C-alpha cells in the first residue's frame, strides 16, 4: 500500500503511522452531556466496511498529519489531504 | 445422522470398501423458526450451538454461516492454545478453555489433534523476567501451570534459538507445558458434527442481510435464503460484527484489523512447541506436516480485505531472523490474513446488548482460537440463562462506560496497539 502524501508524493505506507477514524471530534468538556460524549468519542467506532476517512502521520517524511480517504475492503486510496485543512 | 467414530467403525469400514461413512453433518436448509439462532459458523458459533444443545438442552438451534463453516478466522489462525493471561477478568476464562481443550476430543468424539507440546514465552531483560514471574504466579492462582525457566533450561528445550543476540540475549522463559496447538479445521468440523448429532441445524451459504424488529426487540433475521425468526439471536461473527450491528444502529468499541500469518516449506522436526520472542511480536510453532507456522503484529490500520501488506511481512521476517537466524534459509510457502475484531482494551465481549433478543460475542483481537471452547460454553450460558456466567462476567459490553477495562497490555483505548 502506498499513500500519496500531498507534500511528499507517493510514499510507502511504512513511512506512516496510523491513528484511526478521522470522524470523531473532541467534544465540549463543558457541555452537560460531556461524560457520555467523551465515552462515545474515546471508545465507540463506526468501523465501516468501505470508504473511510482516517488519520495518518507521515513520521518518516514531512511529519504532517493527513486525512486519508481509503476503502477498507480493498485498501484503495481514494484521496488525501492535510489534516489541518480537511478537519477544520 | 452420522455414526459414532471408533476403532470398530474404522475396522468395519476398512473391510467394506470404506462405503459406510456418512456425511459428518447434514446440509440443513433454514427453517422459519428457532429457539436460538447463532450467526457465524466459525469455531465460536459452532461451539456455542453445541454447548446450547449439550449443556442447556436447547436443541431447536440453527447456526447461519454466510460461506462455508470455518472459512473465516477459524481457518486462518496459527492454532495456538494456551492460558497464560495476567488479569483476573481473563485468566480463569482462558484456563477453563484449556480444560475444555483437554477433554475436547472425547467430548466431541472427533480427533481435533490437540497437542500439548508447550508454549514458551522468552524474556530478554531483568524487567521482563519480573513481569513474567508475576504473570506465572497469576496463572497459578487460576489453577493453570507455569514454570519460570532459566537460560540453560531454555537451551535444553530449544537449542536452535539465537541466545547471544547482541541487543536481545535470551535470559529465560515462562513455560506453560499444557499449552500447545490444535488442528483448527478439525475443531470446526468436530463441533459441527457434534452439534448436528444433537439436532442443531448448520446452514451454510446463508448470509444475514437484515434484522426483523418488533417493538424494539430483534425477533429474527433476513437472509439470502429467506427470513428466519428466533426467540434469541447471538452474533459470533468476529471481524464482521460492525457490519451487522450497523444495521441496528449499534456502535461498538471494536475496530476490524488485518493480521497476517505465514507457513514455511516442510522440515523435519525442529521446533518442539510454541516459541514466542519477547522483544518483538513473533511466534512460531511447527505443524504436524512439518511447516513452520508463524506470525507477528497486525498491520495496524482498519481493514476488511483479509489480506495484509508487505511492511508487516518484512517486520515479521526481521523478528524471525533475530530469534532464529537459520529461518533465513527457509522458503515461505504462503502467507494469508484474517479479519480481527480488535477491541478497545484488547479483551473480548460476551454479553447481552441493549436490544432485547440480541446477544453479542466479539472483540477477540488476534487471540480467538484458543478461546473457542470457553467462548462457546460461556456464550451458550449467557444465551440460555439470559445472564453471564461468572467466567465471562467481566466481558461486559458496557465496561468502557463503567471503567472496568481489562487491558492486558496496558496501552489504553487504541485498538491497533493491543
Describe this structure as you would to a colleague.
Chain B: Pfam families: DAO. The complex is a heterodimer of chains A (88) and B (418). Chain A has 88 residues and is an alpha+beta fold. Helices cover 16% and strands 38% of the residues of chain A. Chain B folds into two domains: 22-79 and 184-253 and 345-417, FAD/NAD(P)-binding domain, CATH 3.50.50.60; 115-178 and 255-342, D-Amino Acid Oxidase, subunit A, domain 2 (D-Amino Acid Oxidase, Chain A, domain 2). Chain B contains ten helices and 18 strands. Chain B has helices spanning 7-14, 43-56, 91-108, 126-141, 151-157, 184-197, 241-245, 310-323, 372-385, 399-402, and strands spanning 33-39, 61-64, 80-81, 119-123, 147-150, 172-176, 180-181, 201-203, 208-214, 217-223, 228-235, 254-266, 274-277, 282-286, 291-302, 332-343, 349-352, 358-362. In chain B, a hairpin with a 4-residue loop joins strand 10 (217-223) and strand 11 (228-235). Chain B is globular, with a radius of gyration of 21 Å.
Set out the fold topology.
The complex is a heterodimer of chains A (88) and B (418).
Chain A: E1 2-5, E2 9-12, E3 17-21, H1 34-43, E4 51-57, E5 65-71, E6 77-82, H2 83-86
Antiparallel strand pairs in A: 1-2, 3-4, 4-5, 5-6
Chain B: H1 7-14, E1 33-39, H2 43-56, E2 61-64, E3 80-81, H3 91-108, E4 119-123, H4 126-141, E5 147-150, H5 151-157, E6 172-176, E7 180-181, H6 184-197, E8 201-203, E9 208-214, E10 217-223, E11 228-235, H7 241-245, E12 254-266, E13 274-277, E14 282-286, E15 291-302, H8 310-323, E16 332-343, E17 349-352, E18 358-362, H9 372-385, H10 399-402
Parallel strand pairs in B: 1-2, 1-11, 2-8, 4-13, 11-18
Antiparallel strand pairs in B: 3-7, 4-6, 5-6, 9-10, 10-11, 12-15, 12-16, 13-14, 14-15, 17-18
